[in-house]
Design goal:
It is a single chain. This protein has a two-stranded parallel sheet with strand order 1-2. The chain contains 20 helices and 2 strands. 65% of the residues lie in helices and 1% in strands.
C-alpha cells in the first residue's frame, strides 16, 4: 500500500468517534479470530492502535484503560462466549476477574504504580516511560500468576477467582504475559498471509518458532495460534506436526510437541460445525457457503494428509464432526422441496380470493434454501450428505421447471383475482429458476410470462 493511501486511511480512522474506533478495532480482531483477511485486519488494527496511542497536542494526562493496556498482548488469542476453548485461546470474560485479583492481592503495589503512570502528563519532565512501566507490570503479573498456580498452599486460593473457566485461563494469561517479547518477535518473523502452506513456508515457520521461550507446552499453542491466523486454510497447521514427526502417522505426530496442531485443527472444525448448525437453525444462510467450504476442505485435508486410526481419539473426533454435519443438514435439505411446493402449488381457481398472498420473507428464505442445496452438491461427498443432496436437488429441478411452465400458462386466466395471485407465484418461480438454472432461463420464463394474455390458452 502506498504512503498516500496509508495517510488517507489514517486520516479517515482518526476522524471517527472513539466508540466507532473501538467497535471497528473489535470487528477486525474478530475477523482475525476467524482467520479472515488476516493481513488487512492486522494492518488496520495497527493503524487504529497508533492513533489511539498518539499523544495529544495539548499534553493532557495519559488516560487509558489500564486493564486493556496491561492485557494487550492477549488480544490475538481472545475469544467471545465460548464455553470450550482449544489450546492457544483465552476467554475474554476471564480478563476482568484476573485484573481484579491482581489489584486486590496478586500485585497491588505494581498495579498502583502502573495506574499512576497512566495518569501522569505525557510531556512533563519527569514523565515515566509508559512502555517500560507496562512491561514491568506485565512481568509482575505473570510472576504473581505463576506463584498462585504453582503446586503448594497458594494454589488453594485459585477458587477465589470465580468461575472454573477463569481458573482455567489464568495460567495461560500469565504465560503469554511472560513471553510477550518472544511472541512479538515471532509475529515479525512470520511471513504475511499464506494462502497455501507450502513446504518452504513450513520450514520457514519452524525456524521462526525455534525460540526456547516458545517451546513450553503452555506457550507453544499461542505461538501456533499466531501462525494459524496467517494461513488461508487454518487446518493446514497440521503440516508443522507432520514435518517434525517426519510421518503422517498420528501416533508419531502425537508424540511430538507439535502434535497439538492436530488438536487445534480439529477443534476449529468443530467450532465451524457448531456455527453452521446455529446459522441453519436461525435461518441465516449468509455465511453458509464459507462454512461449508471450510469444513469440506478441512475434513478432506485431515483425512488425506493424516493416517488416522478409526478407534483413536482424533479419529473419533473427526468422525463425530462429519456425523454432526450430516445430522444437522439432512433434515434441512430434505425439507426444501416441500417448501417450494407450498409456494408454487397451483390449487383450484375457486380457492383463490382477493386476500390470497405470498409472504415475501418466505420467498426470500426459500430462495436462500434452494441456493443452499445447490451449494451443498459441491461438498456433499466429504460431508456425508451426498444421497439427500442429490435427491433434493433433482426433485427441485424437475418440480420448479414444470411448475413454472404451468404457472405461466395459468396467467391466461380471465379472472383478474386468480391472475393477480398466479402472477405472484410466477414471480416467485422465476426467482427460484434464477437460483437453480441461471439468469438466462429465468429471463426466458419472464418473457413468456409477459407475453401470456388472458383468454389465449394454448390448444392441444
Amino acid at each position: 500500500m502506498s504512503q498516500p493511501t496509508i495517510d488517507r486511511l489514517r486520516n479517515y480512522l482518526g476522524q471517527l468517534p472513539p466508540k466507532a474506533q473501538a467497535l471497528l478495532m473489535r470487528e477486525f480482531e474478530r475477523s482475525i479470530e476467524r482467520g479472515e483477511d488476516v493481513a488487512v485486519a492486522n494492518f488496520v488494527i495497527e493503524q487504529l492502535r497508533s492513533i489511539v496511542r498518539a499523544p495529544s497536542e495539548d499534553a493532557t494526562p495519559r488516560t487509558a484503560d489500564p486493564m486493556r493496556l496491561l492485557f494487550r498482548p492477549l488480544e490475538p488469542f481472545l475469544v467471545e462466549n465460548t464455553p470450550n476453548i482449544r489450546p492457544g485461546q483465552i476467554r475474554r470474560s476471564s480478563l476482568a476477574p484476573v485484573w481484579l485479583w491482581l489489584v486486590r492481592e496478586g500485585a497491588p503495589e505494581d498495579i498502583r504504580k502502573f495506574e499512576a503512570a497512566l495518569t501522569h502528563p505525557a510531556n512533563a519532565p519527569d514523565a515515566p516511560d509508559l512502555d517500560r512501566v507496562t512491561r514491568a507490570t506485565q512481568i509482575a503479573a505473570s510472576e504473581a500468576i505463576a506463584k498462585i498456580t504453582a503446586p503448594g498452599p497458594d494454589r488453594q486460593r485459585l477458587g477465589r477467582l470465580g468461575a472454573p473457566s477463569v481458573v482455567e485461563d489464568i495460567g495461560p494469561i500469565g504465560a503469554v504475559l511472560k513471553v510477550r517479547e518472544a511472541l512479538d518477535t515471532l509475529g515479525i518473523r512470520l511471513q504475511g498471509y499464506m494462502r497455501e502452506f507450502e513446504e518452504s513456508q513450513v520450514r520457514s515457520v519452524l525456524g521462526a518458532l525455534n525460540m526456547p521461550s516458545l517451546q513450553s507446552p503452555q506457550v507453544l499453542p499461542f505461538a501456533l495460534s499466531l501462525v494459524m491466523q496467517r494461513l488461508g486454510s487454518p487446518w493446514q497447521i497440521i503440516r508443522l506436526g507432520i514435518s517434525v514427526a517426519g510421518s503422517d502417522d498420528e501416533v508419531r505426530i502425537a508424540g511430538t510437541p507439535l502434535g497439538v496442531t492436530v488438536t487445534m485443527a480439529i477443534h476449529d472444525l468443530s467450532r465451524v460445525t457448531n456455527e453452521l448448525r446455529a446459522d441453519i437453525k436461525r435461518g441465516q444462510y449468509k455465511n453458509i457457503v464459507n462454512h461449508l467450504k471450510t469444513l469440506h476442505d478441512g475434513v478432506r485435508g485431515l483425512r488425506t494428509e493424516l493416517d488416522f486410526r478409526t478407534d483413536s481419539n482424533w479419529g473419533r473426533q473427526l468422525a463425530a464432526i462429519r456425523s454432526d454435519i450430516s445430522n444437522g443438514m439432512k433434515s434441512e435439505i430434505d425439507g426444501v422441496p416441500g417448501r417450494v411446493r407450498r409456494l408454487l402449488r397451483q390449487g383450484p381457481d375457486k380457492d383463490v380470493t382477493a386476500s390470497s398472498r405470498l409472504d415475501p420473507t418466505e420467498i426470500d428464505e426459500t430462495a436462500a434454501l434452494i441456493e443452499f442445496v445447490a451449494v451443498c452438491r459441491n461438498y456433499a461427498s466429504e460431508l456425508a450428505i451426498n444421497e439427500v443432496t442429490l435427491r433434493s436437488f433433482t426433485e427441485l429441478q424437475q418440480y420448479i421447471e414444470t411448475a413454472t411452465e404451468n404457472l405461466v400458462e395459468s396467467l391466461r386466466s380471465t379472472n383478474p383475482t386468480v391472475r393477480a395471485f398466479r402472477k405472484m407465484q410466477v414471480q416467485a418461480a422465476i426467482r427460484f429458476c434464477d437460483v437453480l438454472f441461471g439468469p438466462d432461463y429465468a429471463m426466458l420464463m419472464s418473457k413468456a410470462a409477459d407475453m401470456a394474455r388472458p383468454g389465449e390458452r394454448k390448444t392441444g
